[in-house]
Design brief:
By secondary structure, the protein is an all-beta fold. It has strands spanning 4-7, 10-12, 18-24, 33-39, 46-52, 57-59, 67-72, 77-82, 91-99, 102-105, 109-113.
Length: 115
């Protein structure tokens, strides 16, 4: 079993920045891929960022250049640094990992971008 806990969400103004954290209950050293997803009410959940065990990252077109995903294996934590936030970034953000064929999700953290 893997437990994931997201934190760092809140209310920010357009153009602002926020850093989200995803703390895992087990070592993330060997986790091949860790993903950040987001979902707005009534909308489909979308993948926004991926980081591999080797540090390779990928981003969706909607966030590329504004978001940065990183990992600290010693802390078993993955981060999502968000900048130049837009109202359309408003969503619940989740981290995800697949282990043993099972998807593990945190409860999510709400990010609201509004003036």
């Amino acid at each position: 079993q893997v437990q994931l806990v997201e934190s760092g969400g809140g209310l920010v103004q357009p153009g602002g920045s926020l850093r989200l954290s995803c703390a895992a209950s087990v070592s993330i050293f060997s986790m091949t891929r860790i993903r950040w997803y987001r979902q707005a009410p009534g909308k489909e959940r979308e993948s926004v960022a991926i980081i591999t065990s080797t540090g390779t990252t990928n981003y969706s077109d909607s966030v590329k250049g504004r978001f940065t995903v990183s990992r600290d294996n010693a802390k078993n934590t993955v981060y999502l640094q968000m900048s130049s936030l837009k109202p359309e970034d408003t969503a619940v953000y989740y981290c995800n990992v697949v282990r043993g064929g099972t998807n593990y999700w945190g409860e999510g953290t709400l990010v609201t971008v509004s003036s």
